[in-house]
Amino acid sequence: MKSAGIPIEDRTKPGEFLSVSLSGHALLDNPLLNKGTAFPVEERVEFGLLGLLPPHISTVEEQLARTYGNYQSKHTDLERFIFLISLQDRNETLFYKLLSEHISEMTPIIYTPVVGEGCRYYSRSYRRPRGVYISYDDRDQIPQLLDNAPNRDVDVIVVTDGERILGLGDLGVGGLGIPVGKLSLYSLCAGIPPSNTLPIVLDIGTNNKELLADPLYLGLRQERVRGQQYDDFIEAFVEAVINRSPRVLLQWEDFSKANATRLLEKYRDRLCTFNDDIQGTGAVTLAGLLAAVKAAGTRINEQRVVMMGAGSAATGIANQIVAAMMTDGLSQEEALSAIWLVDSKGLVHTGCSAMDAIKRRYAQPMDRVSAWKLDHPDNITLADVVRNVRPTALIGTSAQPGAFTEDIVREMASFVKRPIIFPLSNPTSKSEATPQDLIEWTAGRAMVATGSPYAPVSFGGEVYRIGQCNNVFIFPGVGLGVIASRARRVTTQMFVAAANRLSEFSPALADNRAPLFPSIDDVRTVSREVALTVASEAVRAGLAEQASSEELTRRVDAKMWRPEYLRYARVAGPPDSLIV
Question: What is the pTM of this model?
Answer without folding.
Answer: 0.91
